[in-house]
Design a protein that fits this description.
349 residues; alpha/beta; Nucleotidyltransferase, domain 5; Actin, Chain A, domain 4; 5-stranded mixed sheet; 13 helices; flat
Length: 349
């Protein structure tokens, strides 16, 4: 009775705290919030605009477009917190927006984090969440959450493999009997893909663009594998030689060349993970293959490239952008079952 009442008055939360986007799920309701991990400040101060409401979608609209009096900041880089105060303010806003809390009660919170973060970086997540209004805080590795969200049989005595390509990190893991057998994490993901496009257009076309424009180009014509019909798009930017605005027509072949280095880094991370796996489990991977999750999984032809290079079946999960969030929400709904495999801070501190 008490647990039902508490769930009604102060529902627990599952948070996918991503470099690019933060998704929040409410116990029993699923994902209720999906917003960019961006905060807008008054320049020269630590004050969040709009009485603390310039967070998420509103703040992202300001990236690259703000006047001198406003600064738009992402408090996470490469999957870890780089600005504790702003991350705390962002989490507090998202927690309050996702679910109204009863005064005096604090929700239990499960947060998905990259597998390669250090104990100090974990402690930063614990502290930021607690100061933002969370009660008991648990951490789950993004790769495990991705495996659960993708519906993989990670608790069975067979190998399941997932590669989660987020905004700041790419996490690869092989599971068996509910535990991670082998894992690798590389800080090359969506942000690095965007930066590679920015640098390529600067070098190849003498055209300077911002990362939001690079992200649009990546979505419109980006690919990791030759397309049946190659694409083109028009890009607007600043000519680095003349200093005046101009346009350039860019092809999907050119963007594929721009993305070659970061895509290869992610592919090598997957290869290294397989190389460390026991032969018996490798046999399962040959049969069952690899599942791609995260925003980076939407890059055209990435599954084809990995299938060709790795020689195993590769598929993209359904709705890969929300896979980690859905897996974290499943852990929250079955917390008693998953509690022992979550990090509550006692193991490292």
């Amino acid at each position: 009775m008490f647990h039902r009442l508490r769930r009604l008055l102060c529902p627990d939360l599952a948070i996918d705290l991503g470099t690019a986007n933060t998704l929040v799920s409410v116990q029993g309701e699923g994902i209720v919030l999906n917003e960019p991990s961006v905060v807008a400040l008054e320049k020269g101060t630590r004050r969040v605009l709009g009485k603390g409401t310039a967070v998420g979608k509103l703040a992202k609209q300001m990236l690259g477009r703000t006047p001198d009096s406003i600064t738009a900041i992402r408090p996470l880089q490469d999957g870890v917190i780089t600005d504790f105060e702003l991350c705390e303010a962002m989490l507090r806003y998202f927690i309050q927006k996702a679910s109204r809390q009863m005064r005096g009660l604090k929700p239990r919170v499960i947060i998905a984090v990259p597998g390669g973060i250090t104990p100090v970086e974990k402690r930063a997540v614990f502290n930021s969440a607690e100061r933002a209004g969370a009660g008991r805080v648990y951490l789950i590795e993004e790769s495990k959450a991705a495996g659960i969200g993708a519906g993989l049989p990670i608790s069975e005595p067979i190998a399941s493999m997932v590669c989660d390509i987020g905004g700041g990190t790419s996490d690869v893991a092989i599971f068996s009997l509910g535990e991670i057998v082998v894992s690798q994490s590389v800080r090359v993901a969506g942000d690095e893909l965007d930066e590679a496009i920015v640098e390529y257009l600067k070098q190849r076309f003498s055209l300077r663009i911002g990362t939001p424009t690079a992200e649009k180009v990546k979505i419109q014509i980006g690919s990791a594998y030759p397309l049946e019909q190659e694409l083109t798009t028009e890009v607007r930017g600043l000519d680095t030689i003349s200093g005046i605005p101009r346009k350039a027509v860019v092809t999907s072949e050119e963007i594929r060349e721009a993305l070659r280095e970061p895509v290869t880094a992610i592919l090598n991370c997957v290869k290294h993970c397989i190389e460390q796996c026991k032969p018996e489990l490798v046999g399962d991977i040959v049969d069952h293959g690899l599942v791609l999750t995260g925003g980076g999984a939407l890059l055209r032809g990435l599954d084809q490239l990995m299938n060709e290079q790795l020689g195993i079946p590769v598929r993209v999960a359904d709705d890969p952008l929300t896979t980690v969030a859905r897996g974290t929400a499943i852990c929250l709904d079955h917390l008693s079952q998953w509690r022992t495999s979550l990090d509550d801070g006692a193991k490292d501190f």
